[in-house]
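Re: [ENG-882] Designed sequences occasionally contain unexpected residues at chain ends

Forwarding the minimal case from QA. Structure tokens:
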């Protein structure tokens, strides 16, 4: 009898143990599946890659094409043929003919004066309009039909921070600006806002099953990269993946020079249709569903090999969108639209400009996770060290003093920027809590509650207007080396990029 009872007891314990395992393993897995990815290529795991390239001058335009380069837009998009899949099953990977390219090099070299299907006649000889039309054309070539909507590509974005103030090329808060004397922005003279040389190595399939391709080049138009990089600018993005295995790994490198001391390089997930962050025209990208605060997270693996020096504002994440000061969505009117950015800088050499002695560099208040407002003049409680810099839109009419307004020239419309630093106050959202976390030698996979954090940040709005919907049209990662006084190099790898709707 006792043996029977002990057997029954063991059976009950066994059942309870199985229930415990079920609750702690199966259920969390099931909950994880409830997340819906907002991007067309969740986690960068699709073998048929879609990646594009865009380069901008200081005011997010083209201005003038580099000689022989065409419009600074390009794409590398391909599928794997069924023939290749058969060879993979037989473990016989032989050549790159199994990659079906969607974009030709002739497409990538298209520039002003050359027509293509769907080109607006008004854009044929206008470098700025031509670039936007070319992006739509490349997007159509790369597009993947999918649910809930088609998607196009990851975007490599390169930007030159030189501004020739005598040119009058960039608007001031969306309005035409008069030329003014140099000195405020870097520029070596006429031509400093030029577009870069672009070299494209189309993706190839190697014998070991590795797929690899790249974009690289320099802003120094007469330079020979093969002779070395001393004294010249350089950028490079190499993507690599084994067929059927893991995520694409994007290896980035950015180098500044005396002539080009302010350069930016990002990998972006942009809206598949409509405006992306910082633009005032239709774009193409990877975000099938636009994430809205507070209901999304971002998962990404980052490994910083070389940080880029003390001026490198390396963004663990940069999110961008656009809404008017009255809370309404942007409609293309650059005089009233406002680009909004939130950026987490992880370079430990970046200090907080926000302080009790510099309240103009702080947002008017901080909101805790449990919705307590702490005003910036509350010196005992405001987390000054959590903010590098805040600047308000230059077209706002009811700003709280003291205030610093954002640079009025570097976007096609006014902009508002909230720059954050690692701090314990961000722990609930999964962001770095101390200086050096996630920096050189500390590569890791992050799962960031970007929606939750961005719902708490201060953004300006006209008094008495309904709160804007914080819908983010661009999510990107990379660095902005901000006016370096010597040549600097940043190198990093990025993979597993995903945006999860919660």
């Amino acid at each position: 009898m006792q043996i029977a009872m002990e057997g029954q007891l063991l059976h009950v314990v066994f059942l309870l143990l199985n229930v415990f395992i079920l609750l702690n393993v199966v259920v969390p897995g099931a909950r994880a599946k409830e997340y819906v990815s907002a991007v067309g290529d969740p986690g960068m795991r699709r073998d048929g890659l879609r990646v594009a390239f865009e380069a901008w001058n200081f005011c997010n335009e083209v201005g003038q094409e580099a000689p022989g380069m065409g419009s600074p837009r390009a794409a590398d998009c391909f599928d794997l043929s069924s023939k290749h899949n058969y060879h993979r099953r037989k473990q016989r990977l032989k050549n790159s003919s199994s990659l079906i390219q969607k974009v030709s090099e002739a497409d990538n070299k298209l520039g002003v004066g050359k027509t293509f299907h769907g080109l607006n006649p008004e854009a044929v000889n206008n470098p700025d309009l031509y670039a936007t039309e070319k992006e739509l054309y490349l997007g159509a070539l790369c597009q993947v039909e999918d649910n809930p909507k088609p998607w196009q590509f990851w975007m490599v974005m390169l930007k030159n921070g030189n501004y020739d103030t005598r040119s009058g090329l960039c608007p001031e808060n969306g309005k035409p600006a008069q030329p003014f004397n140099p000195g405020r922005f870097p520029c070596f003279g006429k031509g400093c806002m030029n577009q870069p040389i672009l070299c494209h190595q189309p993706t190839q399939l190697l014998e070991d099953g590795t797929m690899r391709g790249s974009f690289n080049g320099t802003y120094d138009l007469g330079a020979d990269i093969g002779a070395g990089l001393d004294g010249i600018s350089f950028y490079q993005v190499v993507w690599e993946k084994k067929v059927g295995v893991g995520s694409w790994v994007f290896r980035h490198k950015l180098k500044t020079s005396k002539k080009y001391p302010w350069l930016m390089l990002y990998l972006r997930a942009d809206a598949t249709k409509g405006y992306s962050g910082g633009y005032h025209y239709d774009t193409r990208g990877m975000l099938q569903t636009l994430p809205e605060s507070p209901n999304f997270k971002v998962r990404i693996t980052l490994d910083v090999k070389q940080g880029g020096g003390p001026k490198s504002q390396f963004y663990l994440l940069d999110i961008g969108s656009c809404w008017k000061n009255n809370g309404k969505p942007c409609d293309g009117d650059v005089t009233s639209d406002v680009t909004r950015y939130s950026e987490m800088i992880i370079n430990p050499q970046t200090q907080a400009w926000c302080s009790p002695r510099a309240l103009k560099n702080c947002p008017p208040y901080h909101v805790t996770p449990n919705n307590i407002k702490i005003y910036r003049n509350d010196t005992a409680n405001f987390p000054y060290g959590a903010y590098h810099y805040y600047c308000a839109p230059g077209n706002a009419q009811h700003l709280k003093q003291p205030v610093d307004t954002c640079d009025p020239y570097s976007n096609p419309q006014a902009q508002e920027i909230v720059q954050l630093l690692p701090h314990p106050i961000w722990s609930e959202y999964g962001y770095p809590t101390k200086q050096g976390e996630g920096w050189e030698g500390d590569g890791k996979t992050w799962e960031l509650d970007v929606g939750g954090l961005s719902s708490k940040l201060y953004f300006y709005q006209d008094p008495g207007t309904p709160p804007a919907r914080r819908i983010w049209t661009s999510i990107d990662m990379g660095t902005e080396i901000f006016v370096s006084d010597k040549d600097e190099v940043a190198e990093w790898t990025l993979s597993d990029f995903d945006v999860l709707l919660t």
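QA comment: On inspection the terminal residues look reasonable. The longest strand covers residues 489-501. Proposing we downgrade this to a documentation issue.
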